Amino acid sequence: MGNSSSQKELEFQKTELNCREIILRDQFQVDSPHDLYEQLTKTIKQKTKFKIQEQALTCYKTLIANSTCSTNSTMDIEIDQRSILNSIKLNEMVRYYQDFNHYKDSIYQLEQILESPHMFSEKDVQLLQQHIGKGSQGNVEINFLQLSQNSTAKDQQLIPIATKKFEDKNQFIRESAILTQLDKSIRPILAFIGSNSSEIHMELCICTLGQFKTFIHTNNLVTDKLLISLFLKLLFKLQQLLNKGIFHGDIKPENITIALREGHASVLFLDFGASSWDADDYLNYYTPAFCKFEIFQMIDNGQTLSKEEIRYAEIYSICRTIQYVMLPQASESLFNQKNISQFIEQFEKTFPSTIQFLKDILLNSVNSKISESQLQVLLEKLKHITQSIKFDEQQLFITSSIINKI
Question: How crowded is residue 329: how many other Cβ atoms within 10 Å of its Cβ?
């Protein structure tokens, strides 16, 4: 009996040490043994720490079995345990969708389901609440959408989605109205728009254009053909947007995303918080680095832009975006608007086709206007360019995807 008791004591001490190690790794402070239960529970529930959750849960159960934890009631323990197990289940789903083929299937499922009469609501969302960014009008997080029970894919009852939570009800209504007028060739697939909360639930895309830039520079994929194809794709998306009478208002790499369409990479616009039909609202939420200085001055002086000026401003932002993607980290000082001439001189031999089109816009200091017919002429000049952006989508997903950054 003595040996058994001694062994049990040693096992408990080992468990206690493991608990403390987990807590310290998670940067929690422990003041006394009575804090173990509370602190360990916090550790397990940390959404960004799911890789050590299973180990933490094992320690947690040992503490309960030895009745060493400080808690108000058995019911508290059961509630916490259910919460923890649900958290672990969702984080296991994160790991599941960190596989490219599983993620790819989830996009296909989302498309198929949204073409059916099935309607989703807040009750179909399993909260992960993994923060992934801040838009112009609110925060964005990863959650999971519960599919209908008659889904044929048993292992994929939950699929990852992005949830944008709005701080302002009017902005939520405004952006929702704009998104519903656009199709999935321009913006992420919409799962549903909240009826009881100011939230928009949508497709979780692969990565932003900023993350795509890192990928292509790291893997030596930056070519004239890729950049001009990207430029053409963005111009076509913009034309579709403008044909709806809508402008974006904040085009930049973080508001452009790489997503899958028919199993292949496609470029979409994100974050329509600055978008509108009304020219009076233009550049309310601009990002100065991607806005032409003269255009900003016009706005600052109280001048309302014409449609031709807005069209030019949007195209200018696309050109600045392509310039940003082109530049390696060592040359990012050339992104300053004062250095555009130097930028063109340095890169026109390496990327001749892309620079040819960029300089007509970026060096235009006289007429900040582009008509609808002029945009069409520009697209005609680019029509010989292939629209396909070819690279290894799976490799991009593995190294750069938002869900793999968790």
Answer: 8
Question: Do the Cβ atoms of 364 and 315 come closer than 8 Å?
Answer: no
| Residue closest to 388 by CA, chosen among 269, 232, 235, 187 | 232
Tell me: do 241 and 319 sit in the same domain: yes
Q: Is 132 helix (H, G, I), strand (E, B) or coil?
A: strand
Higher-confidence residue: 44 or 381? Answer: 381
Residue 50 is part of which domain span? 2-96
d(CA 199, CA 190): 11
Measure the N-to-C terminal CA separation of the chain; round to a whole number of Å. 47
pLDDT digits (tens, 9 = 90+) for 153-207: 444 478 999 999 998 898 899 899 999 999 999 999 999 998 888 999 999 999 9
CATH of the domain at 355: 1.10.510.10
DSSP per-residue codes, 208-258 = EHHHHHHHHHHTT---HHHHHHHHHHHHHHHHHHHHTT-B-S--SGGGEEE
Task: Quickly tell me which residue has 């555009």 as its tokens.
Answer: 340
Residues 338 and 318 in one domain: yes
- The answer to whether residues 218 and 255 belong to one domain is yes
DSSP letter string, 260-314: EETTEEEEEE---TT-BS-GGGTTTT--GGGS-HHHHHHHHTTPPPPHHHHHHHH
User: Is there a single domain that holds both residue 84 and residue 17?
Assistant: yes
Token pair belonging to 312: 């030019």
Nearest 10 degrees: Cα torsion 393, 124, 201, 81: -80
